[in-house]
Amino acid sequence: MDMQKLAYFTEGNIFTGSATKDPAAGLLLRYRLEPDGEEGQLNAWAWQQDLCFERAAEKEEKSFPLNQQGLDSAVAWLQSLYDGLYAPFGARRWGSAPNPATSFLDKKGGRKNHSAPPYGLKGHRAGHNNLI
């Protein structure tokens, strides 16, 4: 997991990053660390939505001391969220969502609806049989 050194945070800078587990399934973890110099805290947030911090609806939040041990703990916490398949986010996990690339297949790998094109084909328009 990419992270800045402690001096970066003690100077008041905010750090954001992301780690992708499975690009095909959209499994990712975005995170933000922001120091609070007055309180001596390093506040950390993590979310799964492919959105910026301000627009993400479901965020996990935790505070750590603004020192090297706190930074190490914050990195370990973020790594555990990433490694643990995002368990702290509850039942709404991206990993449980249907995969649009294969959702048109039946259990044997054949298409469910032979008259409809597979979901996600580029260039498909209603009434056109040509694909771009």
List the helices and strands and how they pair.
Layout: H1 6-10, E1 15-22, E2 27-36, E3 41-47, E4 60-65, H2 68-83
Antiparallel strand pairs: 1-2, 2-3, 3-4
Tally of domains: 2
Rg estimate, integer Å: 20 Å
Strand coverage percent:
15-25%
**Number of continuous helical runs:** 2
H/E topology pattern: HEEEEH
**How many strand elements?**
4
Main sheet attributes: strand count, strand direction, barrel closure: 4 strands, antiparallel
Report how far apart the termini are. 38 Å
Name the poorly predicted regions. Answer: 86-107, 114-132
Q: Would you write up a description of this structure?
A:
The protein is an alpha+beta fold and 132 residues long. It folds into two domains: 6-96; 98-132, no CATH class. Helices cover 16% and strands 23% of the residues. The protein is built from two helices and four strands; from the N terminus they run H-E-E-E-E-H. It has helices at 6-10, 68-83; strands at 15-22, 27-36, 41-47, 60-65. Strands 1-2-3-4 form a four-stranded antiparallel beta sheet, covered by helices on one side. Strand 2 (27-36) and strand 3 form a beta hairpin. The longest helix has 16 residues, at 68-83. It is globular, with a radius of gyration of 20 Å. The two termini are 38 Å apart.
